[in-house]
Amino acid sequence: MKILHIDPTTKNTKLFNEYVEQGKHIFVIFYLEGCGPCNATRPEWKKIENVLKDKYGKNDNLVIADVDQELLKEIKYLTTQPKGFPTLRYISDKGKTSEDYEDCPNLKDDEKDRKVDSFVKWIDSKMSKQKGGKRRTKRNQKNGKRKSKKNRSSKKRTRRNRK
Prior knowledge:
By secondary structure, the protein is of the alpha/beta class.
């Protein structure tokens, strides 16, 4: 897990853009310095690092970032500019996928309370889809076994013969 703080003093937008180009999974908060809602959300956002370090600490494909709105013009691959602040966004697939926290279908509206636990649920919901898994096969409902190709193809022949 990589942590990025992008503000006028660090100006490390180039690194952020490189992470997007590399296809990393980026969770970012765009904030406006001095904004009341931003000031309330940012401390909760900063807790993510400690909460997730055991689970994702060695995952180099996960990036947690915070970006000062003054540097938005230097950030590439934003499909849409933030409409307000703070804006929390998930970016992946080299910038092709972009989803705001508020629009996440994996969380119920009452779970989007801008607390660290909600952010962790959001991150887990996106990262769990990236792990892959066993390919599901159609199973015969009677005995729970996969139908063989022979059985599947004979069924097709039977249907053709009936026509």
